[in-house]
Amino acid sequence: MRRPIVKAAVAGLSLAVLAGCSSGSGGYRGVYDMPLPGGADVGDDPYKVTAQFDNVLSLVPHAAVRVNDVAVGRVTDITLPDDGWQAEVTMVIDRDVRLPANAVARLEQSSLLGEKYVQLMPPPNGTASGTLRDGAVIGVDSTNRYPEVEEVFGAMSMLLNGGGINQLRTITRELNRALEGNEPQVRSMLRRVEQLTSTLDEHSGDITDALDAVDRLAATLSSRRQQINVALDDLSPGLRILEEQRGQLMTMLKALEDLGEVATDVLDRSQENMVADLRALAPILQRLADAGTALPKSLEVLLTYPFTDEVLNVVKGDYLNVYLTITAVDGTAIIPPISPGGSGGPAPVSARHAPLPLPSVGTPRTTPQAPPTGESTPEGTPPGQVPPPTAPGTTPPGTPTSPPGSPSSTPQGGDD
């Protein structure tokens, strides 16, 4: 009796499944569409979200959708678009669950052999914005997955069998062999490394400033890249010419080397003579040093002779007469005495200042100098010389005087 009842129950269940598969849009399309016990309650009005994954692994429909490991929805469909390589996972989430618009999705596993599920979380940088709405799509750049158990075991197998365990053993053995007996040197090296790191840490600010300066330099060079390119292009012809004249440059450098050797030899041989010459110059230099301010003053008088700067300051605003006679070596007059009136007589003299006599150029010989035309030589005046100047208001000896009441022939000086 029990066996027919079991057979009848299985047949009824099969008919129900087949009826659901053959029904229209209102019926179930398969076992995945059948409600399962213990599933997440999404309420009467959930909202739909689609996430794109590069690899969904063994995720199946009706898998849980969690937020902070709390089930808030389930996976309804997993499809592969015709025009893409990313799988699209469609999820329904309870309307009361609020998620940011830039939420990320990640495939996780509940345990080592547990089920796969989709974990929704805010962005890792913590800058959540907006609200996840119905029909939103989480792009492939915001999805990720945890490594599979098979991948972890495969990596561990490679490490243990053909990986770096044997190499680590070899490295450890060689290190022990290299450090054996060199403990003081290793200890000293570690101490120096510690000092180096401490010094670098103390100068971290300077290092940062140097790096900033290098960054500014790089920015400046980048902004002047065109000028640098032009300069490098202009240097190319010069470098080419230098390359062509390399032999001549080498010959010139060799000649300079020979000249240096000869100059060194000359200096070595003439060292004593040079020292003697310098010692002989020492008294002259000492006398010039002793002259001090007298030498510049004498040069100043020489360049302004016969009127020095001080004399010009005295006669400023007045006038001063000079009697100039140039004679040849034989005593003949080259230029007779000059007077303002052109008569050859003495020039007018200021009432304040007496004229400064000048020595005649050269020494007169036996030939006497005749007085200029229209000018008489006073008695007692040696031949070839200009009569000495007279004071204002006086008459030179031998000069006829004018009768009383007649005008004077000598102009009087005045202040101009």
UniProtKB/TrEMBL annotation:
Region Disordered: start-end pairs: 341-416
Organism: Thermomonospora echinospora
Keyword Signal: yes
Compositionally biased tracts (Low complexity): 407-416
Record field: compositional bias (Pro residues): 380-406
Taxonomic lineage from the root: Bacteria, Bacillati, Actinomycetota, Actinomycetes, Streptosporangiales
GO cellular component, one term: extracellular region
Keywords for the protein's UniProt record, in alphabetical order: Signal
Protein name (record): Phospholipid/cholesterol/gamma-HCH transport system substrate-binding protein
Signal peptide start and end residues: 1-19
Domain Mce/MlaD: from-to ranges: 46-123
InterPro entries noted in UniProt: Mce, Mce/MlaD, Mce_C, MlaD_Phospholipid_Transporter
Coiled coil: none
Pfam families registered for this protein in UniProt: Mce4_CUP1, MlaD
Mammalian cell entry C-terminal domain boundaries: 131-300
